[in-house]
Predict the structure of chitin deacetylase.
Amino acid sequence: MNVVRYPETYLKAYSKGHLMGTHTWSHKFLPSLTNEQLVAQFEWSIWAMNATAHHIPKWYRPPYGAIDDRVRAVARAFGMQAVLWDHDLVDWGMEASPPIRTKQRILDDARRFKAEGKGGLSLEHDAYASTVDAAIEVSKIFGADQLTVAQCVDSIDYIRRY
């Protein structure tokens, strides 16, 4: 979620206990950036989150899942750890032109992922009303035993809260 564009929504999600991590400032392909650009991507997003909800995130999801050792090193300098996923529902495909995914297919894939019984992280997006709607339905499919990333790896939620 874009914390600068939707600060009230961000605060509401945070106050309800949702684990808030960063997806970087402007969704760039991180391995292609210079060190200075990488620092800016992390620093600006951390600043926005801290200014809005008074916390410093521990977790980040690299755009496109693109990560290399240099990106990891820069993130570690901020105390951050990457989060990747085990299952991609390709929900953004509902908004592709032409669409390459339907809500029904996303829900069917979520049911199949749950039925496998392996657990893991599922990738969904909040950029469109259609993907948010699908994510709510996916959450219902997965049920009440969902965990935050921090709970999955037995770690802290945030580096610092004020």
